[in-house]
Each structure stands twice: as C-alpha cells, then as structure tokens.
Amino acid sequence: MTLTRFVTKSAFRNRRRSVLTVLSITFSLILLTLMMTVWRRWYIDKGDAQSAQRLITRHRVSLTQNMPVYYREKMRTVPGVVAVAPTQWFGGLYKDEKPENFFAQFGTDPEEIFKVMTDFKIPDDQLQAWQRDQAGCVVDSDLAKKFGWKIGDRIVLKGTIFPVNLELTIRGIFTPPQPSMTVYFNQKYVEEAVSWAKGRAGTFNILADSPDDVPKVAAGVDAMFRNSPEPTKTESEKAFQLSFINSLGNVKAFILSICFAVIFATLLVSANTMAMSIRERTREVAVLKTLGFTRQRILTLYVGEAVTVALLGGLFGCVLAAGLVFAIAHAPGMGFFFIGMRVTFPTFLLAVFVAGMVGLVSALFPAYHAAKVDIVEGLRYIG
Amino acid sequence: MALPISYNIRNLKLRKGLTVMTALGIALTVTTAVFLMALLAGLQKAFVSSGDPLNVLVMRKGSVAELSGGFDAALFPTLKTLPGIEKDSQGEPIASGEWVVVVVLPRKDGTGDVNVTVRGMMPEGLTLRRSTKLVEGRWFRPGQREVVVGKSIHNRFSGANVGDTMDFAKGQWKVVGVFDSGGTAYDSEIWGDVNQVAADFDRQGGYASAYLRATDAVAADALKHRVSDDQRLKLEGTLETEYYQKQTSSGGAIKFIGMFVAVIMAIGSSFAAMNTMYAAVAYRSREIATLRIIGFSRPSILTSFVIEALLLSLLGAVVGIVLMLPFNGLTTGIGNQVTFSETVFSLHMTPQVVVTAVGFALIMGLAGGFAPAWHAARQDILTSLRA
User: Taking CA atoms, which of A101, B176, B188, B266 is between 20 and 30 Å from A132?
Assistant: First the structure.
C-alpha cells in the first residue's frame, strides 16, 4: 500500500463524516468562488479590447443633467477621437413596471452608434433599414430572444422622463460580445415629440484610437469644456459602469467580510472533523509508531488526509459555483450587474488552492498532537 | 419519560472543544445573517418612516420619480385652489413647488464621489415637513444662495458644517443650518430655495413636483384623487408615504444577495452540526443502549438528541448575535435607484431581527440534529452494548 493510498483510504474510513465534511466545505466554497468571481469581474477585469477603447462623457454635475448635443462636433477635434455618438437614456416602461420587463433604452444617432460600438455586430441591410426609418429601433439579440421579438414587430415604450410614448418598429437585431439588454432608437423621434429634449444629450459614447489614448482623450475632452457653463466628466466605459456598482454602497468591504467569514467557517469545520477523526485513532497512531513511522511521517499522513477532504470539497464547490454563475448571468431579470460574469480558470485555481490551504492549516494542530502521542499511553487509550 | 435537559448540557460541556468549534461555525453564519437583516431593517426604516401621510406629492402624469421631468409653473396656482389643503396663519394654503436635482460630492474619507440630492423648495415646504427639526444654525432665506443640510450629509461630507461653503452647480452655496428628520431619507438631502436651485440648473418656469398639505387623512386621499382625475392638469397625486414605500425596492439587490448568502452558509453549517451530532451519538452508543434498558423510550432518546442539537445551535446564535452588537447603529449609504443619489441608513438590530436570527439558528440545529438523533433512537440495544 502506497502512502497516497493510505491517505485516501483513511480520509474516507468514516464515510458519512467525510461526505458531510466535503459537503459542508463545498457549500462554503460555492460562496467563496462566487464572491471572487464578482470581485474579479468588477474590480480586476479590464473588459475586452474594444470596451477598453471606449469612453463615456457625462455632465460634470451629475448623470441626470443633459449636455448640448453640439459638444459632439467639438469632441471630434480632440486628438485620438475616432467616433462620437450621443445617447439619451429614455427610461420608459415596456408593458408594465415589473423589473423583469426592464431594459436599457437609448435614443441615439443611427449613423454613428455602431461606429463607436464596434464590437456590436449587426447585418448591414438591417442597419440601413433602421437608418431609413425614424420610428425604427434595433434590439439586443438576447433581449429579442427573451421577449420573442422578430424584425418587423412593434413595441411600445411608455415614457416616464419624457412625456411621450414611443411606438417603435424593430428593424434590426444586433449581437454584442456580452448581453447588453439594450434597445437603440433614433433620438429624433423623441426630439420631435418633446420640445425641451431638442439639442440635448445625456451622455456621449466615444471611441478612441487605442486603449493607450483613453486617458489622453478623457483629459482633452474635459479640458475643452472646463470653462463652459456646462462642464463634462469623461471616463473609461469600465470606470463609468463601476460608478453604478459603487453606488450600491461599500461593496468591497461587504464582499471581503463575507469571504473572511466563509474561510473561517470552513477552517472550523475542517479542524473539527480532523480533531474528531484523529482522536478516534489515538491507538492506531501508537501502532503506526511501533511499526516505525516517524513523527514527521505521521504528521504528513494526517495533514494529507485533511487536505484531500478539503480539496475535494473545494473542487465540488468551484464546479457548482461555475454552474451557478452561468445560470445567474443568463437568468432573465438579473439586471446589468451580472452580465457576462463567469468563473475564470485562475479564479477556479485560486479557490481550490484556498480550500487546500484551509485543510492544511486546520489539520496542523490536531495532527501535531497525534504525532506527539506516547506509544504506551496511546496503546492503552480506549476512546 | 423524558431525559432532563441537564443531561444534554453536561454532555455538551464534556466535549468542550467540539461544542465550541461547532457553535462558532453556527455563530459565524448567524452573524452574517444578522448583519444582512440589520442592513435591510435599517433600509426599511429609512424609507418606510419617510414622508408624512398628510402630504400629497404631485408630479407629471407618468413620472415615477421627482427627478424625471416637471410641469409648467402656471399649473401651480390651480393646485393651490384645490379644496382640502390646510391654511396657514395668514389663510394661505400650505403648498410648495419644488425641484429635485442631483449633484456629485466627494466623500469625507476620500473613497470616491457620491450622488447627493439637492431639493429646492418654497418656504411652505418647511412648514409642511413638520417632523423635520433644525438642530443647528437657521433655515435658508428665500432669494439667497443658502442651504441647510441633512444630518447624514453633515456627518459624511467635509464642508457641510454651518458657516462652510459648498461648491456645486454654478457656484458656491453657504451652509446656514443642519436639520434632523429622524433617520429618514430626508437626512441625506440638501435643501435650498426653489428659485435659486432652478436658476442654477436652468430649470426656470416649472416645478418637478409640488407638495400639498392636507387637513386630515380623508382630505389627503380625496386631494390625491382630485389631482389625478383633473383632466386639465395632466398631473398625478400620491401620498408622500406611498412614494417612499416604493423606493424600498432599492434594497432588492441586497435582499436577494443576503438571502442567498445566508441560506448557502446555513446549509454548510447544518452539515457541520450534523457531523458533530453524529460523533456525539457514536461516542455514546453504549450509554444510549443503557438508557434504553433502564426504560427510556425511543421517542425520548430522539427528543433528547434533538434538544442537544438545538442547544448547540442556540449557543451559536447567542455568540453570533453578540458578535454583531458592536456594529449596531453603524451607518452606510446605498444608491437609491429612484432618486439616483445616495440614501444613508444605519444597521438596525430590531428585536425582530434577533428573533429571526435565533429561529434561523434553531432551524440549522434541527436540520443537523434530526438525522443523528433518529440514528441514536434506532440503534440496536444488544450490538451497542457490545461495542
């Protein structure tokens, strides 16, 4: 019998206990992996190459203030700017107020929006059809699937910010790299119905020459309007999205404290199990010693056992978490925060590694005690 | 005959290490759950207790928040003539036309920018918000670039003390007072003169909303319908309390995530408790057999072990709740999806939160303890005695 085999055999000698421990660690690790995934997605992930090349400009005072639409022409003169498209959040209701019927609705310029959102794919003929129809719109493919929309369908958006109900005909379906839950329509439609919306834009989406140009473009745009009555704030698309997450409160502290609680709980569970199983085997340790096993070797045996159980739990937890993340990211009505989230391989490895470490640490103390057992005392031990 | 509880307590004491570790595991889960529930309770308080049931909020039809759009100022005098509005000492109806805008202010601790609500109001706006008290300085004067700040703003932002100036929109504003509205959403707002605010945000000639003070609850309800039903106005009335009730949905994400985290952690802890209880049964199999021979029935053995598991989880609950106590009253902010700005609230460990936490722990204990207890009660006496 090899050492590894001995370790795995003893790890599952009390099958019920091992299974329960593995299950307990599994659930803890699901949470840990989820939290790490969220952290990665929000705070580490830089977004894909195209997204890293885009910026969003808003009114310096706040997102709820509009800017003059002629800023766009001025922005084009900033070095590094490739394309600019204005967008205006419509915030209308589709069918009713239920959150599952909520999606983003932007009034924009059909001629240029897809020149900025270069990674949003739309067939040329559909794009042209939209450009020709002022009451037309294009919809995200995921959204179309969710609501069962087809080209030619009519949708009605009830205005809440703008006093107008839009009756739009779907002219095209676009596919972004990640679900965007977005409908774009021609802002002229709103402008013709609402006089005060004329010549105003909520945000500008800018495409820069390269990701390296992004800070330069941001500074250039803001400098241009610094002394105007309506100054701007320009930031990368990722930073803009992050500002919404930050508005949820101190999310970082929240995630960290949950991770901490989960790791500590796992440590307790694992240590508990090891303490129980080692205590039961005091006599066995004495026998092993009599056979010539050194203290070190016994220590390794028990630590190995704990690590095996913890790793197994970690592995299950990560796999389940990956499935769960997939389900959440694809569930309807989950909102924008979880779009495109997935458990990456490094996250997976890290979580399994943490599980292993927890197993290691948890076993050290009980295993050390076992290794110290006096042979004669141990043989006498009756449990 | 039932086994005395002291038997269980002694057994828990006997294996101190095991008991403490399992209880700590449960305690951690309880702490997390209490934290999340206290968060929700505080949030609930900030919104539900906001607003006065006698105040009727008027907005343009279709508008869901005070921030979105406005109506013509010419409609305001018509609103004031509606019956059911309380009159002040001069016989004028108490009504206030208001603008709500959002500005970005840097946090005191330097952790980034926060959206803050600025509300421009008429002097009557102060009259109809009766539960709000001035705690420092004085109220703003009409026609002046002066503001009074809510208590939470005062605490969380630098430059929000009486005598300071704040920099937003088109220039500087003088802080002349601090008000306290008892932990409601108003505490996260900055108030100033409606005309000054409208001028700074280029919104003259209209109001985003109007507040009407009704004489009593029946009048408030009638007033609300009168506004909504008037075809000329194209406006909609809601009770201020109803408006804030709706905003509690901002806590929806926290609620969902909180439930999710708590349930997953609870499942994990239940397995751990189960492990401990199985061990407790295994150590005592001979003892259990002896008890059976003496005459204790299977149901009483079952009950005894379930009680032991419940005691264990109860211990965990107590430790967990105590661990959370220092955080009670801690304030934090949440982005309000209706006003697009931050509303500050505090962790609020209500008796209900504590009771729910204990219940939650007991469920964990029951889930973890029942199977082992069942196992104990079903043990074969003879085999156990020989073990």
Answer: A101
CA distance B366 to chain A (A): 16
**Radius of gyration of chain A measured on its C-alpha atoms:** 29
> Which pairs with CB-CB distance under 8 Å and at least 24 residues apart come from A44-48?
A45/A238, A46/A238, A47/A237, A47/A238, A48/A119, A48/A177
Please judge whether B272 and A275 are an interchain contact, meaning their C-beta atoms are less than 8 angstroms apart: no
Q: How far is A271 from chain B (nearest CA, A)?
A: 8
**A156: helix, strand or coil:** strand
Nearest to B340 among A28, A63, A158 (CB): A63
CA dist B166 and B169 (Å) reads 10
Predicted TM-score of the model (pTM): 0.76
Residue A333, pLDDT above cutoff 60: no
Is B275 in Cβ contact with A24 (below 8 Å)?
Answer: yes
How many angstroms separate the CA of residue B92 from the nearest CA in chain A? 32
Which amino acid type is present at position B267? I
**Which H/E stretch holds residue B211?**
strand B209-213
CB contact under 8 A, A261 and B279: no
Which residue ranges make up each domain of chain B? 5-48+250-386, 55-215
Task: Give the ipTM of the model, two decimals please.
Answer: 0.74
Q: For residue B374, which phi and psi values (nearest 5 degrees)?
A: -60, -45
Using a CB-CB cut-off of 8 Å, the residues of chain B touching A27 are 264-265, 267-268, 271
* pLDDT tens per residue across span A6-32: 888 888 888 888 999 999 999 999 999
Single-letter amino acid, residue B337: Q
Distance CA A163, CA A88 (A): 14
